[in-house]
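Researcher: If convenient, please comment on what follows.
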Amino acid sequence: MRRWIPPTLALIALGLVPWAIWLTTVLPSHELADHWDLAWGGFDLLLAAALLATAAAAWRGSPLLEAAAACTGTLLVVDAWFDLLTSTDRDLTYAIVLAVVAELPLAALCLWIVIDSETCTRRVAAWRSPRRMVQAAPSRPPLATDATPTRSSSQR
């Protein structure tokens, strides 16, 4: 990685703090938006694609699993955030239930995948294995009689 990338990203992150404070003081609390339906519909399609990518990566044991799960978890948290902040009355109750029952638990699952993708991949592989119903025979240490006799080419 280039040496300038981490400090640049850190400076941008620090610059976003005053920007966010300024936006919260300047922007109106209520705004009508054109294409509201397309924005939410498009976002949900993006979320569906991310969920599908995460499922496919887990199914295939892909090295992209962590990235897909991180994207999906992030989108789920953003979805819950904006659902809660843009809802009123009865829709707010629905948004709270959806966040608590679906979006945030799925985001937590994605976080677990990011943190421990090896376990997730191993469990999916075991689930897909045709021998998952048959218990493996207990392993035992090899006995001396199990060894295959060999002949040495050197003379003693």
Observations:
- The CA atoms of residues 5 and 72 lie 24 Å apart.
- The mean pLDDT is 86.
